[in-house]
User: Which sequence fits this backbone?
């Protein structure tokens, strides 16, 4: 994680030690939740190992709109920022190991690390652009486009997760997913 | 604008002068565009006077998802950040006066203002949360909820803009808007 932070900003030796101090390691067993609908997202996490999916419950359907893998930061930012209940779920699809930082400790990070706010700004900017595109795509792109996007963004997940989650991302029932695959592989 | 910035971070006299230097004033006549679909959003703007609306073209329909009034910052951030073509429109509904800062000058702002990155982080955080909620609502909330949201967020606009734009925000044709109004005013 220190190396990931250093791709955005420089960190002195003292600052590295402080960062190590502000985060703590947690384990999320497969199937459990990092954030659940209706609960407050209390931490920003950094994935060391494992896999998460983000989804919304809508009319009894699970709409999956993102996956996060090792080396990525994760958070329901809308809930975390003002510590309000989340309207989304972030679930571990594999046994997942994370480093997490609380809302309080993140404010210490911003105050004590020289370029802390720059790091925060750059990370929020990138999350912002991605989240906005993903939400817009979830609601407006047709299934074929969603499937191509899945293959483009998450080529490694095709073999790694049950088909149900791919269908949920594409926005169709599993049999339709097979038809989309067949159609898209035709010349 | 200086006062708005000061609600987020302190500014020294020298910094105030620099900020004044980095922004320039522009006039947008009613009906013209701050950002047009397919073009790059080159500036972040601060509204001194006037009114903007944000909309997406989808299947020949204009989906309005936000309005901005005097005292607010405006930008298609997704386009501005990596200077890529915008998939949205930001249009002046009244003669609008703005202070704008270019991508280059904003980097100077971040580098030279002591708490510049903190300001950037806080503004992006608030834009992020609002934009994500608005996009999700645009695609998933039913017309009645959209209308109540319009009245809640923009009570002053009801008399200020043509009905067409309210319909476009609610996601219905103008005659349906009258029906929604009637239904919601019943006990």
Assistant:
């Amino acid at each position: 994680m220190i190396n990931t932070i250093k791709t955005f900003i420089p960190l002195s030796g003292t600052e590295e030690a402080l960062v190590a101090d502000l985060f703590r390691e947690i384990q999320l067993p497969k199937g459990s939740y990092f954030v659940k609908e209706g609960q407050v997202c209390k931490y920003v996490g950094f994935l060391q190992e494992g896999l998460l999916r983000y989804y919304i419950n809508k009319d009894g359907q699970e709409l999956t709109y993102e996956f996060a893998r090792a080396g990525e930061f994760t958070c329901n930012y809308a809930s975390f920022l003002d510590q309000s209940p989340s309207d989304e779920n972030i679930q571990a699809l594999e046994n997942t190991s994370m480093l997490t930082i609380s809302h309080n400790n993140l404010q210490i990070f911003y105050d004590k690390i020289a370029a802390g706010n720059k790091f925060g700004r750059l990370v929020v900017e990138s999350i912002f652009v991605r989240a906005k595109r993903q939400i817009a795509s979830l609601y407006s792109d047709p299934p074929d486009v969603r499937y191509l996007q899945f293959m483009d963004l998450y080529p490694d997940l095709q073999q790694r997760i049950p088909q149900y989650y791919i269908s949920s991302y594409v926005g169709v029932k599993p049999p339709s997913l097979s038809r989309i695959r067949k159609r898209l592989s035709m010349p």
Remarks:
- Chain B has a mean pLDDT of 92.
- The radius of gyration of chain B is 18 Å.
- Strands of chain B lie at 24-28, 33-35, 43-49, 51-58, 61-69, 73-74, 89-92, 96-102.
- The longest strand of chain B covers residues 61-69.
